[in-house]
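This section describes the prediction task in plain terms. A model, or a person checking by hand, is given the sequence of a single protein chain and must write out its three-dimensional structure as a string of tokens. No templates, partner chains or ligands are provided. The sample shown here is typical of the held-out split.
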Amino acid sequence: MVIVYVVKIGGSLTNNAVNILENLKKSGEKVVIIPGGGNFANVVRNLHENEKINDISAHKLATMCTDVTGTYFSEISGIKTADNLFDAKRILQNESIVIILPSNIILSTDELPCSWEVTSDSFAAYIAKLLNSKTLIIATDVDGIYDKYPEGKLLNTINTKTIKGFTSVDKHLPKLISEYGIKCFVVNGNHPERINNIFKGVVDTYTKITLK
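The expected answer:
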């Protein structure tokens, strides 16, 4: 069975996305990229906080922002995009990597709550489940999860049951990866070699979220 890794690239990494995407293309692994909403979603958050739009509209628009980021990732890397699982799997038959534009998949179901506690981290976990992928990598702009932030201690591992209140991932993610039985790593995408080491099972600077 072909192992597929789901890699969420946070919007905070947009300015360095070229290097990250090129690294993933060269890795030789089968990779599904889920983009974050980035500054596009921040605009939606501001509208929501100022009561210009309601919860459902905010969730819909913020979800659509991930498609915008994903389209940008495709433009700068030449990686193909898909807005559904059928096309994503078809692309992976001939290529090693695909960018999923998540909004169509996420908004067509009621699986995830309409809340700012649910971001592209949770989208990535949900899509990993649909793809039967057992490894999710959250690439962000910090080295992992800390006991305190800023200037706290980087945690090599943390349990899904004790992760609440920490930084780097959305609050709904621990519930999903625990429910789905997915291995999850939080890593600094500005150091693409660390993502490669996760693929290889090599210990490096990152946080592994354990299920027990």
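For orientation: The beta strands are 4-9, 30-35, 81-82, 97-100, 135-140, 145-146, 154-155, 157-159, 183-188, 207-210.
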